[in-house]
Every structure is written in structure tokens, then in C-alpha cells.
Amino acid sequence: MMSKKNINRSVVTFVASVTLAATLASCSGSDTKPSTPSATSPATTTTTAAKETAKPTSSLSGNITIDGSSTVAPITKAVAEDFAKSNPSVKVPVGTSGTGGGFKKFCSGDIDISNASRPIKKKEAEDCQKAGVEFIELPIAVDGLTVVVNKENTWAKCLTIPELKKMWEPDAEGKITSWDQIRPDFPKETIALFGAGADSGTFDYFTEAVNGKSKVIRKDYQPSEDDNITVKGVQGSKGAIGFFGVSYFEENAKKLNAVEVDGGKGCVSPTAENINSGKYTPLSRPMFIYVSKKALARPEVKAFIEFYLNKDEKLVKEVGYVPLPGDALTKVKERFTKAAVGSTFIDAPVGVPVAELLSKDLK
């Protein structure tokens, strides 16, 4: 235990030390300025980084209703997720009732935006007109319909359009049931067919490109608006074959094989380069969003479409589709800025370049 004498000595020593330190600080302070953090100091760096990473939120609010193609949905959902980061008070649910189902809701005025994996049809445009729904047609990507087979299928590496027609046309129903009927050197393996349902734009485009007329197809196949069901169906049968957008194949490339398609100029695989260049024909197609002009008057909808078109190329690549070729996206932005209503893609023949159709005037 410290004695009272020693305690007093310690106190005196401590006070003397503090006094001396204060005196020295006072003397030195007369010749120097208080120090400030340097530009490279940790504190400043942390503050700067915090400012850079902080994302201001907007004052926009409301609901933007979207439905339609399950093929286009991955792009729109990716845009909606990014948009929500800076616009948390705007809700953007994305439905997937198929292109046809989406247009029914859109032309009834029930939704603001319709995702479509094909152009609007004349009858659908007439329905919109009758209901007083004016729309802006905006292509947002290019897709290659991909024909897929089971991983154990080692024979169908490439199929011609006539061979696909022989397999999928209405006359094939109940008659073409084995692979050796498609080509004599193919094995006698039972064919199981899977694909998009009748409300799907993928269904419309595939049947027109392969069978020569939209919605003309054999009835003894397994249709679904959910591409994941097609994946599982083809995966579950050695002789199975199906079709859907290229992004779904990219997601399931470990489960399925993509078939090269010979459109008359040799076998071509559904790669981004071949789809964009037009080599992958006739199964390359544009994909769209259709925006209600009335909805576009709302600031949150206008901001969303502006965001969509500015992010289009990046997000289209991220989800596995092909960005619009050349200056096509610039023309799409011009169409949006002018709020030009109507369609230049109605009844367009399969395989016409997107940029060519975009160059047609709209009011």
C-alpha cells in the first residue's frame, strides 16, 4: 500500500508535468496553425467514398404495371430492379402471361407496358384503337429462337427448316413419331415435343418461321407459357426436342444441347454474333416493349422508360440476349422522344432487319 507521503509526491509530480506540457503547447501554438486533414487523409478518403457510393433517391412514386412475354420479362425485371435502387417509392411488378395475354390486358387499358416477343398484330392494334389506347412501339433487343434437345441426343446437331417443319407441322400429328422418320440415319428414338403455348409470341414466331403461318402446329406436343417446363420436359426424355429464347438456353446450357439451324445457307448456331448479324435465320427476331401514351404522361412511367433505354445494352447482355444492332437503339430513343404512336412492325416478313423497319416514319 502506498503511503500518504508518496501519494502527495505523485500528485505534485503529475500537476507539474501537466503544467509544463501546457506551457510548451502554448509557446509552439504562437508560430503554427491548427492542423487540418490532408486531401489524402483516411478521414477525407472515407468521407469521399461514402459520398460516391451514396445513391440519391428520387421523389417519384406510384405503380407501373407490366405484363406479357416471359421471354422479354428477364430484361424488364433487370431494369425494374436497377430502377428501384434510386426510385424506391415506385413499384414495378412484372407479370408473365405471354405476349398475347399481355396485349389483351394492354389494349383493355389494364396495364401501362406490354412486354412482347413479337410485333403487335393487326387485330390487337385494332382492339387498342377501339379502346382508345395509343401506344409507342419500342424494340429493345434481338433474340434467337433456340431449338434444344436432350444431352443424350448425339445425332441432331443440325436441322434444316424443312426437317423442323416435317416434325412440327399439323400433318405430322400422330404420323411423325420417331427420329429416323426425320432423317434415315437418325436412330429409331421416339420424339417428344415441348414448346411455347398459344399465348406466347415465341409460339407465333416459331410457327410462322418454321411452318409458314402463325399458330399452325401439330397438337400432340406439350405447350407451356413457362419455359422452365420446356427445359424439364426436354431434359427428361432422350428423344425430346423443344424451343424457346436464347437466354433460357444460356441459363440451361449444362442441361440441354442447342441445335444448329440450316436456313438454306448452312448450319448456324444461335450465338450473339450470328443472331445480330442476321446469319441465324429465320429464327432471329426483335423483342419489344409497348408503352401506353396515356401512361407515359405520368412522370414515373416516363422516367422508367428513359432509364430502360439508357440501360438497355448493358442489361440485355447481362440476361443473355443480343443488344439492338448498329444505330437501331438511337432510332428507338428518337421514337420514344417524339412519342410516335403506331407500329412499323405489323405484318413485317420474318427476317427483315430491325433498323430497316425502324426507319419507317411514324407520327
Strand order of the largest sheet: 9-8-10-6-11
Tally of DSSP helical segments: 14
H-E string: HHEEHEHEHEEEHEHEHEHEEEHEHHHH
Portion in beta strands: 15-25%
Largest sheet: 5 strands, mixed
Structural class comes to alpha/beta
- What percentage of residues falls in helices of 4 or more residues? 40-55%
Mean pLDDT: 85
Summarize the structure.
This protein has 14 helices and 14 strands. By secondary structure, it is an alpha/beta fold.
Write the layout of secondary structure elements.
Blueprint: H1 4-29, H2 42-53, E1 62-63, E2 66-68, H3 73-86, E3 90-91, H4 99-107, E4 113-116, H5 122-130, E5 135-144, E6 146-150, E7 158-160, H6 161-168, E8 192-196, H7 201-211, E9 222-224, H8 227-235, E10 240-244, H9 246-251, E11 256-258, E12 260-262, E13 267-268, H10 272-277, E14 284-292, H11 293-296, H12 299-318, H13 328-338, H14 354-358
Parallel strand pairs: 1-3, 2-4, 7-12, 8-9, 8-10
Antiparallel strand pairs: 4-14, 5-14, 6-10, 6-11, 12-13
Helix pairs in contact: 3-12, 4-5, 6-7
